[in-house]
Amino acid sequence: MSSIPLHRLPTAPERLAEVLAAITPQLAATAAEHDAHGTFAHDNFALLHASGLIAQVIPQAHGGGGADLATARRIIAAVAYGDAATALVLTMTYLQHRALGRADTRWPAHLRQQVFSTALNEGALINALRVEPDLGTPARGGLPGTVATRVGDHWRIHGRKLYSTGSPALRWLAVWARTDEAQPRVGVFLVPRPLPDTPGIRIEHTWNHLGLRASGSHDVVLEDVAIPLDLAVDIRPAGEWADNGAHVDQQAWMAVLLGSLYDAVAQAARDWLVQFLNARAPANLGAPLATLPRMQEAAGEIAGALRTNHVLLDHAAEAADAGAPLSTTDSGLLKYTVTSNAIRAVELALQVSGNHGLSRHNPLERHYRDVLCSRIHTPQNDSILLAAGRTALGV
């Protein structure tokens, strides 16, 4: 079982509130520095592990916190309020833990337990590596260029994966690849990565992004990486991956957690703006900017956008936890609406704060760069609206 005693996993709501209140300012204290230098915040994940948060979504039967979506949303929001890049890495691990904890997973039981145990004992992170230079995102179809070749009692894997969030610290790589068989099978090959180095796995530090600069979303190159045959944890004929293996529960979790992340970024921007408008009192005005109707109107519009997000995210989490997750189309619309509202809220904050908001001495410009990244997560806006339009039109 875990080296983290169960009493240290903050499963009780009041205990979880204490933990989150303590770690959020610690994460925020180093966020600007990691953003400026594009460095991965290893210490943040040591803190999350010590606080029992990395194992929260692991089922209680496996020693974890057994968190439902409402609880996971709460954690991701608190982490993102402090450091959005750290929250994105944690979100990816939560999504993998959720998928492995479902009864319909095809992963062998002993491998699921191994992934869970390393998360409990070591704070081990896991993410799916799917995007490729030629394939792009698998959500838009196509066979992966990453190839697994069977050689004796091993698979040998060759390929390059882009945007591999958390790559400097991932303990497990869930690699999307195809076999080199005459009729290729496609799916997930689990590649263990005992840190710091694993033969055949190379991290190319290509992530030099506008936002979420500390997420470590670099290229991962796999060069003749050997894994045992049973680490082909879910491979199927390509035709069996209808809708790329979309699962309504998984889509609901992804939409809520990513929505909560970017909504929290917008909340942090809102809180900075409130403080700024109340503190800033130009000499020609003789009163804080907060007394101006124009500022009050902007603050009201921001409040409306974030209140809408709060209601939508809470409803979606409650529905999923009640066993009735939103449909895949509605989950997409949730992501679209929440992230659009978050972007709009931060844009308004920038408009009314002027040069102060754009200065790197203040966090608002970082929040803006981070919140813009919400548009690129699968499903992307064009796919969301196309699916919703077809549903509305019945075609």
TrEMBL record:
GO terms for molecular function: oxidoreductase activity. Its cofactor is FAD. It comes from the Bacteria. InterPro entries: Acyl-CoA_Oxase/DH_mid-dom, Acyl-CoA_Oxase/DH_mid-dom_sf, AcylCo_DH-like_C, AcylCo_DH/oxidase_C, AcylCoA_DH/ox_N, AcylCoA_DH/ox_N_sf, AcylCoA_DH/oxidase_NM_dom_sf, Mito_Isobutyryl-CoADH. Residues 24-92 form the Acyl-CoA dehydrogenase/oxidase N-terminal domain. It is an enzyme of class 1 (oxidoreductase). Pfam families: Acyl-CoA_dh_1, Acyl-CoA_dh_M, Acyl-CoA_dh_N. Keywords: FAD, Flavoprotein, Oxidoreductase. Signal peptide: none annotated. SUPFAM superfamilies: Acyl-CoA dehydrogenase C-terminal domain-like, Acyl-CoA dehydrogenase NM domain-like. Residues 265-376 form the Acyl-CoA dehydrogenase/oxidase C-terminal domain. The keyword Oxidoreductase applies. Residues 132-225 form the Acyl-CoA oxidase/dehydrogenase middle domain. Belongs to the acyl-CoA dehydrogenase family. This is Acyl-CoA dehydrogenase YdbM. It comes from Ralstonia flaminis. The gene is ydbM.
